[in-house]
Amino acid sequence: MKFKFTKDDTNAVKGVAILMMLFHHLFLAPERYAGFDVGFSPLSESSVVFIAQFFKICVAIFVFLSGYGITVSMKKLKSGDNLASRKQVAKRYFSLMSGFWFVYIVCFITALIFDKKILSCYAYSGDVAALDNTFNTVFYALVDFMGLAKLFGTPTMIGTWWYMSLAVIIVVAVPLMYKLYEKFGTVALLVVTMVLCGVFTLENPDMFRWLFTLSLGIVFADKDLLARLKNFRFINIRIIDYFVKLIIYTAVLIFCFYARDWADWIVSYFRDGIVPVVVIMWLYTILFAIKPLYVVLKYLGQHSMNIFLSHTLLRGYLLKSFIYSKGNFLVIFGMLIILSLGFAVVIDLLETFTGYKKFTQFVTAKIMGSGKKVEKETEKETAKV
């Protein structure tokens, strides 16, 4: 049996990454839960914080998957077809932003109803009354709405939306990086992105430190390395081979878990390229063999975009006291998963019942200029992160 890294596999990895993100944002530092009586049994508080800090790797996982997915799409285009390439970029940008725009509007309305202080960020002074300055308010809100707040250094309603600026950069950068890769090969791409990481991260580290990770996503997609590594066998007997991989891959994962904290591995962006590959390979080869768990993770991954966009509104603002008052850290984590997934499903239903999904499918079809065929393909797509 030959394995392929499929869309379902991508969603399952996203499911794990979104769980990492929720845990990371809950417990990355004691200040997050200060004032609440949080229990950490059967672990210690320092262990939970250490794990939460490691789970920052979720960003790199999403970046890698984005580079991988866009490259798979680029490979389907005819070489040198610049028009088709530009259409793909436009399609991906619209697919990314249309999902964000709907959630932005939902969060904006929710803030207006339940807590206007959330919108005080657009006053920059933090004063709600300063929102009367219409020009500044509209300008900052518009930049945030376009997902460019982090890139331009302007305020954002929800702090975790900084990733939208990175996502926009990814959509534009991958086609250019792929052309570089096609023309000059793997080594040139990896060396150039390593150099660019060193140059650009001096000015804006959150925006460009993952270029190397992105380049690995491109290379792995073009050479189908995830599937090839999974198909590789140390021993021809499948069950024995699985347990050999379990031991080896888990040992490497544990090494990365500790090494990521105490060793910078020359430069952090090299580390943040290698570690997500190890995590993804462990998930794909070891964990996903547990089929019921795989199904659950795949479902979470299908809603990962909406969970990412909306969970901070719940955790950081509207329901913070309710969530952190649940006692044990595992119960708190479970509560945030349930609430975030529930809110994400509601958003998905609203997109359907308001006709927003049909509208975005129509626009996507127009962008691609392929009529009903594109509409059917679009219906099957989840939002790209």
What is the compact description of this entry?
This protein is mainly α and 385 residues long. The chain has helices at residues 7-27, 45-54, 58-75, 82-114, 134-145, 149-152, 162-184, 186-200, 205-208, 211-223, 225-231, 238-262, 268-285, 291-302, 304-318, 320-324, 329-353, 356-368, 371-380. The protein is globular and about 60 Å long.
Domain count: the total is 1
Major beta-sheet overview: none
Helix content: over 70%
Distance between the termini: 30 Å
Rg measurement, Å: 21 Å
Mean pLDDT: 88
Roughly what fraction of the amino acids lie in strands?
A: under 5%
Which class do the helix and strand fractions yield?
mainly alpha
The total strand number stands at 0
The ordered H/E elements are HHHHHHHHHHHHHHHHHHH
Overview of the structural elements:
By secondary structure, the chain is mostly helical. It has one domain. The chain is 74% helix and 0% strand. It has helices spanning 7-27, 45-54, 58-75, 82-114, 134-145, 149-152, 162-184, 186-200, 205-208, 211-223, 225-231, 238-262, 268-285, 291-302, 304-318, 320-324, 329-353, 356-368, 371-380. It is globular, with a radius of gyration of 21 Å. The two termini are 30 Å apart. The relative contact order is 0.15. Mean pLDDT is 88; it is low at 371-385.
Helix and strand topology:
Blueprint: H1 7-27, H2 45-54, H3 58-75, H4 82-114, H5 134-145, H6 149-152, H7 162-184, H8 186-200, H9 205-208, H10 211-223, H11 225-231, H12 238-262, H13 268-285, H14 291-302, H15 304-318, H16 320-324, H17 329-353, H18 356-368, H19 371-380
Helix pairs in contact: 1-2, 1-3, 1-14, 1-15, 1-17, 3-7, 3-10, 3-13, 4-7, 4-15, 4-18, 7-8, 7-10, 8-10, 10-13, 12-13, 15-17, 18-19
